[in-house]
Design brief:
152 residues; mainly alpha; 6 helices; 7% strand
Length: 152
């Protein structure tokens, strides 16, 4: 296989289209969340992930798990947690069974903001997908996203 191999060229083009779709969607949602709720996409994602924790077995996430869920490095996730904690949207506390562990919970203010922002996020996602579906090179990817069923 060479760099000019048609299969590689097609693969690169497909990856480029997927990257373009992701970028357009994320930028559209970012603008909507910033304008309506003073939240970034990453902040919204972090609040969403942490709001799904529970007190049962394995219900609280370690920072590495949170970082993986929001697709950031651990250090970037820690900085993001600190920013949201400073805004009163998150709180940290020591794990009751392992004093070395630190958990993060969404505060009532954070839950309220998340609930107000959720319809904005969903509407912006729908708008971005509808816009992308009008583009011939992105339409098949939009269709794939819309038919994909991934557990929450």
């Amino acid at each position: 296989m060479t760099a000019t191999d048609p299969a590689l060229t097609a693969l690169a083009s497909s990856w480029s289209a997927l990257s373009l779709l992701h970028g357009r969607i994320e930028a559209h949602i970012e603008r909507a969340l910033q304008a309506g709720h003073d939240l970034s996409v990453r902040e919204y994602s972090l609040l969403d992930v942490l709001s799904r924790q529970h007190d049962g077995e394995g219900g609280h996430l370690q920072m590495k798990q949170v970082a993986d869920a929001v697709v950031l490095s651990q250090s970037a996730t820690t900085r993001l947690v600190t920013r949201l904690e400073d805004r009163g949207l998150l709180t940290r506390y020591l794990c009751p069974t392992d004093r070395r562990g630190i958990y993060t919970n969404v505060t009532e203010a954070g839950l309220g903001l998340l609930e107000r922002a959720r319809p904005t996020n969903e509407a912006a996602l729908r708008e971005a997908l509808d816009e992308a579906a009008r583009s011939p090179e992105l339409a098949p990817l939009v269709e794939a996203v819309e038919t994909l069923r991934v557990p929450a």
